[in-house]
Amino acid sequence: MSNAGSNNKSYYISATGNKNGPKQIHVAHRRSQSELTDLMIEQLSLEDVQKHNQSQNNTNNHTNYRGSPIHHNKNNNHYNNNFHSRNYSEHSNNNNPFSPPKINIQDSDDRNSLGYMHKKTGSQSSAYGHNRRQSLVIDEAKKYAAEEQAKRHGNEDTLNIQTSSNLSLDPPPSFKFPQSPEKHLGQQSFKFPPSIKINTKKESPKKDEDNFIKTPTHSHRRSRSRNNFNGYSNKQNNQSLSNQHSPFRSVSGQSKDNNYNSFTALEPPALFQPGHNNNRPSNGSIQSNNSHGSANVNGNGNGNGNGNGSQRKALYTPYLPQSNIPDLVKQGRLVTGVLRVNKKNRSDAWVTTDGVLDADIYICGSKDRNRALEGDLVAVELLAVDDVWESKREKEEKKRRKDASIQHDIIPLDSTDDYHNDASINISNKLHASNEDYPILSPNTPNLKRYDSEKPGAGSDSETISPSRSSVKRRGSLKQRPTQKKNDDVEVEGQSLLLVEEEEINDDFRPLYAGHVVAVIDRIPGQLFSGTLALLRPSQQTQHDNKPPHVPKIVWFKPTDKKVPLIAIPTELAPKKFVENAENYNDTLFVAALKRWPITSLHPFGVIITELGVLSDPNIEIESILKDKNFLSNEYLDANDKTKERSNFKPLEIKNETYETRKNFFNENIVAISTLESITDFSFHINESIKGKLQFGCHIVDATESIEPNSSLDRRARKRSTGVFLPQKSVNLLPKVFNEFLTFKEDKVSLAISVVFTLDAETFETESIWIGETTIKPSMVISEESLNDIVEQGSSKTVAKLQQIANQFLRERIDYVDADVSVSLPLINSLDDEKVLVDLNIFENRISSNIIEEIKRRVNSIVAKEIYDKLGDKAFLRRQAIPNDTKMEFFKKKVNQLGFEIDTSSASGLLKYILSIKDPNARRGVEILLFKLMSRGKYYVAGKVDKEQHKNFITNIPLYTHFTSPLRRYADHIVHRQLKSLLRGNEFEEDIHSLRITSEYCNFKKDCTYDAQVQAIHLLLSSAINDMSKPTGQLLTMATVLQVYESSFDIFIPELGIEKRVHGDQLPLIKARFDPMNKVLELYWQPRIDSATFIPADERQANSYRNSIKNKFKSESEEIATNEFDKYNNNEYLVSPSFQKELESMNLKIPHISFPEYDPKIGALQSFLSTTVSRRENEHYIQEITELQRIPVLLRAEIGMALPCLTVSALNPFIKTED
Fold first, then answer.
1. In the predicted model, what is the mean pLDDT of the chain?
2. Are residues 812 and 961 in the same domain?
3. Do 325 and 39 form a contact (C-beta atoms < 8 A)?
4. Is 240 helix (H, G, I), strand (E, B) or coil?
5. CA count, 13 A, side-chain hemisphere, 42
6. What gap in Å lies between CA 297 and CA 318, rounded to an integer?
7. Residue 729: in which H helix or E strand, if any?
8. How many CB atoms lie within 10 A of CB 244?
9. How far apart are CA 608 and CA 248, in angstroms?
10. Does the pLDDT value for residue 215 go beyond 60?
11. Is 730 inside any structural domain?
């Protein structure tokens, strides 16, 4: 790509895949991350000129344009419509962290005007704290993406580059425009939801008094700066963090959590404050206020808010005015999307544009991410990929040199290597050749001197040992990660059940698009984060022995979620004696919220909400997960007694006429299926009385008939949005009294909404469908477990018919005549809905659950079509997006390498092929790869999404919604009300805007529910593995290799439902060789060194994660193998009796592991080792690792971190080798 940086002519690339999106996207050019693009200069200058013009027109304001601050009249709300204040209050933007400083420029009439200074060239920083970025001659950006695609497909010679013409453009459907200035006082800067109102006097509310503040429906949406949450005025909202009371300095009798569990409104607390007090000079990146604990960071970056501050450098660029973003999106100069943080390398991120572009946008580094968080809706300006990539390489080279000086590495990585990733498949030819004959060894590798000395030329190449080239060691193709990167990987990989996967990028496979965030448009309200407190940042702890050189003015909150940045907490808001006794809080969990993030601060500022308790307490860990995922579980609690729910929440009285006017099915043998004891909202009947026909009725509890729309209860249910079902604890959507009243019970008359199918008795094909409001009286209620037993035993003709019906629905859905519900894809199914009956193994599935879920899918699709046909744009639906071409090709390539020619042209072809794989381990492996490729389902309003994107891709259903579980999903309530309005001939009154907001909030809480469930399973599974391995410290089990890389390989253990990565630099290896063509990794082992007790030299250092682990290594591999086979041969569980009882109380199966065939002639350990593929060549001891191979691995639960970590290592096949 050419760098025509001097040409300022605008160029565009074509957008694809979205009729409502921009047809052309502007691409900018810059030389470095410190530059501002022409677009930013233009927009920020325009904003200041508008403010200046407004100031001149406002006679109540007296402004000195030579630098004195603007003083607005607090009571004057009559602003010019063209003025959009970016501040929170009605004052000037002196305290606005996002607005740049005001400086003098000359306008067209040679008058002094407020604007922005910038330079085209040179290294000096401008008034923004950044150099100017110049426009790029870029029709070549689209050409670059096409060239990159052609390179990946191997047809570089044939390119067809199309240039779009100027068209009338519309914004993408996911974009949320600011409301018109005519209706609002001014556009304000982005903020978090409002603060907790902390009562210094504990007041007891009257009995059954409803303390819920009525708020409009739109308060459910992501946080918008123009909303006054909790009834606070702008003036109240604009209080600084300095006025925040500490929960640890409360008056006598005050709750430690500051009444956090008292429900006040739909949004949780934590107000984002746009600026800091300008009451003292500041000289550090983060400082706290002397008197109130607020950091004095002048938001506009100049440090001279009151004339007494020192100038501070802006670390981030100001956000563009939100009032201008809609037009810029329409013009194609910006594109919007949702940001996700790269969990492996958290400084990087990706933005998904929902079909506007054919690939995600790469965001390189924290500066380009510009303070955006995971899940934010952001505006992005596209940049030239070559420029961004060059900047990335420069940053990583600096990082390499820094680490080299610390770790004294002598073996360089080639500059094309991914510094953060030892799971790449591309090896530098030059490096590989230099190590072809002579392995180059690190001095930190123990017991290797004899191998190093045997080859006289090893390590003598001057280019190879240049310390300026790299900071990461290599042995052969084996990468050696820095200690801090190992620590990060242990937590990132160890704290999840499946590995996090991102698109692989390197010099050969660069991203197709790159950009930088220029504004945060929307953010989910009231996000909370659990974590621990420390006096120092992790990178400083080893330097200062965990003690700061002086009393700090801030302490650091380290979130459990690695995608959330470190949060600076003013010392005054920390526990009272935290600074003096910080070590006493090492195992204490807290909950924090973000408050503000000015452009001059590297980290955001926040406040501690509450102290949860000690890490080792299982109840505390579950509370931490729930709060971390925004489930406070306090919506229905009595204000005077938090152990009880409020007594004034009662179902509406059902009138007799309601029962009489509905069709009843009292004569049918209706069976209700209970998922949990407290939730039974689905029932069915099968009637075979008509010859050749079969009537199949599905009945869903009519929950909305007992809940008044927009009542206090309805708004609370909307806030909770969904029930949460963990193995250890459940949080229901509705109060207990409602679940008791609504749930189907034997011989109890209940209101329902029914979908009744008339089926052919032989083929079970659908002939007609009836939908209506009904009354039913179930003749029996059975649990899913009991239903599963009946299916397996084949003891019921009715249940057999039910299974046949489900099979036919499945075959029609995916167009596969051999499909059967007995073979399912539980991971793929979880993309739409999480489990209610939770298993300890995420790969586990019951055939009864498959039957019921397949029937529910059919009912949901029928209802979706009905409401869409009648309501059109207002229909509340659910979709699952089609992966972009880049991701799908990446998936196809991986599956092809496993030996499967998979069909990715359609969802039905994809599902058919996976279900047809006979080997269950191979099928599960392909399912894992597909699962990590797909996004989760999303609710949407039909009129806000292009018709081409309505499809629920992974279920292969054109129109889909959620209707069948109203006792656990609020989205189902919306759909019930829409359907009932059609059945009754009434107009559905809720407007499309509030429906969209509800859909966004439901999406957020739905994802939170799934994440909480997975984390809870991981927590319990880690405890189980720790219990199983107590005698020896580790488990030895068989695993399946899923993917092979140059220095590591991925395995999954189907019996436990986990996928992990085996890192070569944590094994006693001499070197490794990787064949990328055949995907074979050869491990060159040190003989007679046990993997079970081996600890790399750098992991013995003080800054290694191993120092925080409480359960240390105990036994060698032979003892582990012998202990396990003894119990296996005696039919004993590895789990202790006490833990068995705990699992049984949760209705969970006892976990087990996989063993090889035991051969008493060779013993337990050799029975495991006999499964490996190994050989000896001269003095080398080599093991071959190939994909889908079964190998023995060592598994352990690392206990002692905020969340336990599961780690694996390979068993050394040459542990007993003799010379």
1. 76
2. yes
3. no
4. coil
5. 11
6. 14
7. none
8. 24
9. 9
10. no
11. yes
Q: Which CATH number belongs to the domain containing residue 1120 in this structure?
A: 2.40.50.140
In which element (H, E) is residue 28 found? Answer: strand 24-28
Q: Strands of 1069-1075's sheet, edge to edge?
A: 1069-1075, 1080-1085, 1180-1186, 1174-1177
pLDDT tens profile 319-374 = 999 888 998 888 888 889 999 998 777 888 999 887 788 788 999 999 999 999 99
Strand segments (E) across 998-1111: 1035-1044, 1048-1053, 1058-1063, 1069-1075, 1080-1085
pLDDT value of residue 395: 81
Q: What is the reported pLDDT for 269? A: 33
pTM of the model: 0.79
- Rounded CA-CA distance 985/1128 in Å is 65
Q: What is the model's pLDDT at position 1162?
A: 92
d(CA 1157, CA 700): 49
> 685 with 784, same domain?
yes
887 assigned to some structural domain: no
The total number of structural domains in the chain stands at: 4
Three state DSSP letters for 354-379 = CCCCCCCEEECHHHHHCCCCCCCEEE
Same domain, 620 and 748: no
Q: Tell me the CA end-to-end span of the chain in Å, nearest whole number.
A: 57
Concatenating the DSSP letter of every residue in 487-515 gives: HHHHHHHHTSSS-------SSSS--SEEE
Tokens of 553: 């003015």
The backbone torsions φ and ψ at residue 468, rounded to the nearest 5 degrees and listed phi first, read -80, -10
Tally of residues, the chain: 1219
Place of tokens 């068995």: 1140
Token pair, residue 1125, equals 């086979």
Q: Is residue 459 included in any domain, yes or no?
A: no
CA-wise closest residue to 1083 among 1061, 1068, 1096, 1097: 1068
Nearest Cα neighbor of 704 from 973, 984, 978 is: 973
Domain boundary pick from 960, 991, 1016 = 1016
Q: Is residue 902 packed enough to be buried (19+ CB in 10 Å), middle (13-18) or exposed (0-12)?
A: buried
Within 10 angstroms of residue 199's Cβ, the number of other Cβ atoms is 15
Short-list 221, 180, 170, 169, CA closest to 941: 221
* pLDDT tens digits, one per residue of 709-742: 999 999 999 999 999 999 999 999 999 999 999 9
Q: What angle do CA 1136, 1140, 1144 make, to 5 degrees?
A: 175
The answer to whether residue 609 is domain-embedded is: yes
**The token pair that represents 999 in the structure block:** 């859909």
Question: Going by C-beta distance under 8 Å and a sequence separation of 6 or more, which residues neighbour residue 1152?
Answer: 1055, 1133, 1134
pLDDT digits (tens, 9 = 90+) for 525-570: 778 899 999 988 876 665 555 566 677 889 999 998 888 999 999 9
Provide the residue range defining the domain that includes 1113: 1030-1210
